[in-house]
Structures are given as C-alpha cells and as structure tokens.
Amino acid sequence: MLMQWKTTPDPFINDFRSLSRQVDAAFRDLFPAPKARPTRRGFTVHETDESFALKSALPGLSPQDLSIEVSDGYLKLGAARSNEVPEGYRAIRRERRNVSFEQSIKLGPKVNAEGIEASFENGVLTVTLPKRAEQKPRQITINAA
Amino acid sequence: MSEQTAVSTHSEAPKLPRLTAPVDVFESDDHYLVRADVPGVGRGDIDISFHDGELKFEATRGAEAVYVRSLGFGDDVDPDAIEAKLERGVLELQLSKAAANKPRKITIQA
A106-140 pLDDT, tens per residue? Predict the structure, then answer.
C-alpha cells in the first residue's frame, strides 16, 4: 500500500531553522512546562538603618495576584501566576515557569509590624519593614544629681 | 600582571551580569507571539532588533543585570510588522508572518 509521505515536511527542503523548530516543538510536547508547586521564593533582603526591604521578582503578576498579610508576628506572602496559551495560538516553546507560592516569614523584634508597606513595580515586589524606633541607637545622657 | 591591567582599563563601566530571559513562544496562522520575563526592567531600557530572521533583545534591569535573548524565525516573518509592549516585567512581541507563508486555501477550479 502506498503511504502519503508529503504530510511530513522534508527536512532537507525546509531550512534548518524550520527543522530545529519542529524538533523543539516535539520536545515541548514530550516535556511540557513544569507544573507549578508551592515553593520558597528567593527573596533578597536589603537592610538600612531605618528598615529592611524584601524584594522578589514576580514578572507578569498583577497586584491582585498577590496577597500580603501580617498576623501573629508573621508576614505571610502568597502569589499565583499561570501562563495560559493565548486564544487562537498554540505553544511552540514554554520556558516561563508558573508561579505559585505561599511563604511565612517570622518578624523579628526589630520590625515595626504596623509600618509594613508593599509596592509592586515592573514585576518586582518590594516589602518594606521599618525598624522600631527603639532599635535605633539612642544616646543616653546622665542626669546631673 | 600586564594582561590584568589591560582588561581593567578596557571595561570603563562595570560589566553587568548577562542573564538569559525565559520565553514562551506561541504561533497562530498569522502571527508569532513571544513573551519574555524581564522583571525590574522599565520601558526605556529595552533594545529590540530583527535581522536576517533573528529576533534579539537586551533589557537592562537598573544597575543589576541585563536580560538577553535571541530567537530564530527564518524568513517567514515580516520584519516591518513587529509590535512590542512591556507590562509588569513581561516583554511581549508580536511578529506577523509574511503574506506568502500564511496558509491559504486552494480551491479546485471547476
């Protein structure tokens, strides 16, 4: 019986890039993007005399995708992003990871929990934890008798 | 020793670490869509070029790092119809396929 061989493009006729794209696509099908699971985030911490700043790269998230809560001496952070295939498109390369995490950070005695603030700019979350006033060095004068 | 001196005088500005930006690439009948994670990068800090079927970008994250990437698309992309937008640390590029390469229906003449 005759097989129709035209359905698979001839790699020697197609240019090399087209071939490598097909190979990539085949691999992508075999090994789809890793499933998101809750993980600890890599936060960077900057300390100044006034505060600590926690920073984490969370590209593509909107502020609604983030939850930040302070309770019982813990800072609780949560975020989720899933990378959907846009309507009308098919995926030919998936490298961006889905984001899903929850993390609790114990606040030390230095932190003024009331003053914690968060900002989100260009996909980077910054949580600022101000230090308590009494943690700053304070000069004590001896009262003359 | 002399070699080290030569190297240090060569790089006047401190060299930023170059990071590979992770990308998703999607394809439709008419377009390719590229999404790249470039957290911390502002609108004015991205260079995008398309030459000989190769899409390239460099996105600078303050004084911390440069995200770089190049992707080959062959000759089925119209180089004059590439659109870019940057939102919340994600760079999105839409490439139009060249008209000749779009799938087209061929009807059998009666």
Answer: 888 889 989 999 999 999 999 999 998 875 677 78
Inter-chain contacts counted by CB atoms under 8 A, chains A and B: 81
* Minimal Cβ distance to B42: which of A85, A91, A122: A122
Separation of alpha carbons A83 and A92, rounded Å: 14
Which segments of chain A are extended strands (E)? 44-47, 51-57, 66-71, 74-81, 90-94, 99-106, 117-121, 124-130
Alpha carbon distance A56, B54 (integer Å)? 31
B40 touches chain A (CB under 8 A): yes
pLDDT digits (tens, 9 = 90+) for B10-21: 445 568 899 999
How crowded is residue A75: how many other Cβ atoms within 10 Å of its Cβ?
20
**Interface touch B90/A83, C-beta < 8 Å:** no
pTM exceeds 0.90: no
